[in-house]
Amino acid sequence: MLIPLLTLFVCLLILVVVIINFVNTVQAKYGFAKNLPTVTRADESIVKLLWRLVRASDVDKFNRVVEAFSLPYRLWKVWLGPVVCLGVCHPDLVQIVLTHPDCLEKPFIYRFIRINRGLLVAEAELWKRHRKVLNSAFNLRILHGFIPIFEKCCSRMVSDLKQMKDGETFDVMRFTARCTLEMVFETSLGTGCLPPSESDCLIRHIKRFFNIASSRFLNVHLHYEPIFRLTQRSKKETESLHYCNTVVKQLLTEKRQNVTKTPETPDDEFGKPRIFVDQLLRLGNSFSETDIIHNVFTMIIAGNDTSGQLMAYACLFLGMYPHIQEKVHAEIVEIIPRHHNEPISPEKLKSLAYTEMFLNECLRLCPTAPNIVRQNMAPITLDETRIPAGNLLAISLFAYHRRKDIWGPDADEFDPDRFSAERSAGRHPFAFLPFSGGSRNCIGWRYAMISMKLMLVYLLREFKIKTDIRHQDMAFRFNAALVLAGKH
């Protein structure tokens, strides 16, 4: 009897020593944050917070995050299990984080998206090499050369919409997402669009694996790969990734054959715009097969979740505010009439000043990526708090774009005029971050703005948009992208 008791005592002693050592390690690692405010509720322990997050609906999770970032703190902390995450809320601090050379790293949660070698989630050193090479693919001259392709895709979208019955209610995202996918295929892969049924299927699989990745962010137990592999989500993720990989690999195989048959000539740089994947394939050893696939995936996801989704929100706001729709429509038909037979020039697009203000207001209230998280690779200082390397720094663009000290007492209201030159004067340069900020901003932001302006031109020259959804009734689900909850 004595030996079992002694064994039990030794085991308990070892367990106590391990726990004490773990607590001391955590306190030593995160002691720098002890004086920062904590945003958990007064009656909520770390264990209770994590349990609530596991049980909470995606809408509740989204609201909890926004609630935390809406508190009157410049910098705060929250515990996610044994890890502390710092919330960065003031423009001065946001600017430091997004422009600091030691804050280019994206933390481990982004790896859940499974395109680890694409620009969206690549580790800092790989991102630097790839971004330097790929910047030329998004220069303004090349993007302007894509306008005829964008117009062709917009024209097909209008034709599809004309098949709907007048006054019929439907989800416009189905059409805007298909249109932006066609744009990405033609400008990034140089291939024609997929049949509508295949396009819709690809979009569904992309959304599914993206949603599964997002579901792991706040579910700490799913951060651990062995646990995640036991879930049904893992099986569904594998199915969707396999489908997407098969489609992209098939397209790349066809494209590679065409590239080898048509060698690059000195005139290419100044002739017709080079397709994105052509440059990747011609770079040879600079980009591996996985690099190419992941960057193509990144373009498809960005096209669908940036241009396609924002256009759906833009249509929603146009339907909510008929007087604003009238102003956007009036500007469009004055500058680019319905029977305008010539290709739309970059100059005419640039002249759509109120239309751009409208799109900016859509991006302010509905940023395509509602949250940004960075990890500092070396110690940095924020508000006299020295933060050791390896910590998580989070920014909620959804809450940040609603700060009343930046945007005024009507920050929650939809008003494109807040982007007029007069009202924008003196605004902090990092107050508005529709495509993130600093050197690791979205490489395709100008691509997105040009394509979205053209989609608005084609839509409003043909249709009047209505909706029964009210602005105050909009609710969102927690996701890496901004996703509206409920039927819409």
From TrEMBL:
Heme binds at residue 442. InterPro entries: Cyt_P450, Cyt_P450_CS, Cyt_P450_E_grp-I, Cyt_P450_sf, Cytochrome_P450_Monoox. GO terms for molecular function: heme binding; iron ion binding; monooxygenase activity; oxidoreductase activity, acting on paired donors, with incorporation or reduction of molecular oxygen. Its main location: endoplasmic reticulum. It is found in: Endoplasmic reticulum membrane; Microsome membrane. It is a peripheral membrane protein. CDD domains: CYP313-like. Keywords: Endoplasmic reticulum, Heme, Iron, Membrane, Metal-binding, Microsome, Monooxygenase, Oxidoreductase. The keyword Ion transport does not apply. GO terms for cellular component: endoplasmic reticulum membrane. Its cofactor is heme. The keyword Iron applies. PANTHER family: CYTOCHROME P450 4C3-RELATED, CYTOCHROME P450 FAMILY 4. May be involved in the metabolism of insect hormones and in the breakdown of synthetic insecticides. Belongs to the cytochrome P450 family. This is AAEL012761-PA. It comes from Aedes aegypti (Yellowfever mosquito).
